[in-house]
Structures are given as C-alpha cells and as structure tokens.
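re: ur question from the group chat, yeah i did fold both. here u go
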Amino acid sequence: MMELDPQQQVARTTFEALRDRICAEFEAIEREAGSDAAFDYIPWDRADDSGAEGGGGVRGVIKGKVFEKAGVNVSTVGGAFNPDFAQTIHGAAEDPSFFATGISLVAHMANPHVPAVHMNLRFLNTTKRWFGGGADLNPPIPYKEDTDAFHAALFKTCDAHDPGDYERFSKWADDYFWIPHRDVARGVGGIFFDHLEIEGEDAFAKHLAFASHVGNAFLEVFPAIVRKRMGQDFTDEEKARQLAWRGRYAEFNLVYDRGTLFGLKTGGNIEAILMSLPPLATWE
C-alpha cells in the first residue's frame, strides 16, 4: 500500500468520486434504453503486472446497448522512471522519482450519431507538482449543435478558472489531437492542458477545483448529447463510416497518445491502458 501525502490523497479521492458519478450516469442512460448493462470493475496491482513497486488502480468497463464499450479508469502509481523516459517528463530529468493519480475515460458508442468522447484528469509529482488533463469530442457524424454545446461547457469552466484559458487550452487540444500521417484532426476538439504547477499556498486548491470543474462540465454536457442522439435511426453506410473513423482513433492512440506511452513506460495494466481502443474498427 502506497503512503500518500495530503495533496495526493485529496486528488485521488476527488478522481474516484468523479469516476463513481460518471459511471452511475452512464448506467442510468443504459436503463433508459432498456438495458441492464453495468460497469465491471477490475482492480489491478502494479507489482503483479510489472514487478514494479508502487500502487495500482481499478479498470471499469461497460458494454451495453448505448455504450458499445466505455472505460473509466482510476490509477494511483509511484516509483521511478527509467532514465531515458525521465528526460521527457516535466521535472524528472535529474530525479526520476514520480507519483501519479488520475482518471481516464473513453466511450465508444453503438449509434454512429452519438459521438465518442475522451476525458482525463491527472495529478503528477516529480521534483515539481502539477495538474493536467482535457476532454475532446469525437463524432463520426458531426452535428454543429453538439460541438457548440460541448465547447460552450468547457469555455464556461475555463473562463471561471482564468479568462483566456479556453483559447489557449482549445488550441492546445487542436494541436495535440491531430493525426499527422493522415493530416486530419481526431475529432472536433475540446481542451487539453498540462503543467498547471503547484506554486504557492493556494495553487493546489485552485487547480484541483479547475480539474473538478472540467469533470462537472463533462457530466453536464456529454450525457445530454447521448440522450439526444441515442435513439436516432442509422444506416449501414453510417455504421461503416463510424467503423472507419474508429480506425483513425485507434491509430492516434497507439502512435501519438502520451497517456498510452506513460502507462506502458510505468508498468501499468495493459488492459487498462488499451481500454481506449474501440471494440470494432475497419481500415481500407
């Protein structure tokens, strides 16, 4: 069992509570669709998976009528990066020791009119301490009103934290969630932020509140979009379009995603790391 300091414990508890609220909402949507699908929670231990000391997590997966496959994971791990990887991590070049706790969510939907979505929030400690995360919408069939609602919720959250954050974090998301070898965006954007450092007495509370508000914004806007679209009829052509789009999504996560690399480099649970991959996809 890892011993956590007060900031680490508060961050972990916050992310676990957010996980519980999100999973309850997803299960409620399944009930509304006439499904009894529920999350299957699988705990994992880092020592069992990689032989490394320090922490573990819980992988939550639901496969239902609305959520073809959705994963909501919380992990809390610590240890030391290998020397080469440490050079790429903020504050770890001289001391490779680290701690990380976070929530990671990806939902792939049965109906191609319902957008897939990604959201993650994390608190990392090296020789520095900071929050990072983001959320982005990934519709196979985009609807402007859904995109606008998603961005409006994130704008409201960012603007309350620090005016100007939305423009910066939204551009960061556009740059990050880009598939260079395809020359296309992964979706319709959102926000991405990193290195919100804990400097000064009030910084931890301020940045934790922002991370929590991002989670609240997600819960405000995404389930509403799901409920609006989940009953729409769709054609075989539209389903084929979704499967081809999922192939692009998988390419990004396997080739470029920093979270995937972080999990693999720190001895995480393979199934939890790769839960972001869709259940079905096609490539031409």
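okk and heres the other one u asked abt
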Amino acid sequence: MVIAIVKYGMGNVASVQKVLKKLGYQSIITNDQDELKKADFILLPGVGSFKKGMENLNELGLVEFLTNEVLVNKKPFLGICLGMQLIASYGNEPEHIKGLGWIEGDVIKIVPKNGHRVPHLGWNTIKTDVSDAFYSEFDNLDYYFIHSYHFNAKNPKDVTMWVNYDGELVAGLQKDNMYAMQFHPEKSQDEGMILLRKILEKYAKV
C-alpha cells in the first residue's frame, strides 16, 4: 500500500512519514494530482491556521480533487490536527471561512472557563466509547495535543474520541472511509503508532 501525505505548506509532513516508515508502510509526500490518484490512502496532516490551510489547498487546485477522491471514489483518508479541522463545514481561524465540508460541523476557538491556557498543549487522556471494539483499547490512553481551536461536530455519531480540557472536546472523528484526530499520533510514542497501524491495517497489510 502506498500512502500519499499531502504537501500543502502546513508543516509536520516529515515526522508523519518517519512514523509510517517505522510501521513498514511506503509513503510519498506530494501535491501532484496524478500521484495522489495512484495512492491507496491519503493522509492530510498540518499545523497552523484554518484560513491558510484552505488557501493553500485552493491554490494547489486540491479542494475539488481531494473531495472527489475521498467522498466520491471513497479513498481511505486520515486527517491529523489541522488536517482534521479542514474537513469541517466551516472554520473561524482567524475569520469565518468555508472548509472542505466532508463532516458536518464548525471549528471554533477553545474558550476555557476555569483558567486553562490556550493553546491546549501537551499530553492529555482521551476517552472512547468502550463498546466500540475498534476504539475501546485506546480508552484512557495519553496522546499529544497542540491546538487553540476545536471541532464542534454536528452529528455525535461522527465522534469517536474525546478529551477533557475544561470541558469535553472532540479528539477523533470517523465517517465511512474518513478518519481524523485532533492530537498528533506521530508525536504520541507507542500509543500513537498502535492507533495508526490499526487504521492502516483496516485497508491493507504491510
């Protein structure tokens, strides 16, 4: 299986590729549509603002292309951090702007009530639905976060993982062939690698 890591100027692609290599998967870092089309799996990482991320995808001509690959052709997809946020209907960083619209919801600023600092930075414990066989083994494990905005999902059924940061925030999403997580599995040591492997193995063995 070949995994295409989308190169769109929003960071952390090399660290993601390094972890994929450790897991035994072949990956390419690209924004070339022909290479993305040939790939078996698309991974959209990223750090930074929602607006800049969407501007870069638009400038590269990837918005309509990726939407067709993921929603129409049902190519397996994983979004990480900003890559998760961009699949929302709308973002608000730094202003209201249309997202990819693959999973209904909007990305809004974290507003702590009890003095928690923003961004939400560092290790935190995720919660999952323990009745869900796919995610139950990750309940109460720690993952690495860095974000100032969070995904406010319209449909609770799309949410697979949560994190408490002065209130419950969405930590993971899944809908059909789309997976997404707010935390950085590539920075989350063994627990992150186990989660990545489980998602990838659902589609192809190494």
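fwiw on the second one: The chain has six helices and 13 strands. Helices lie at 13-23, 33-38, 50-59, 63-72, 82-85, 189-201. idk if thats what u expected
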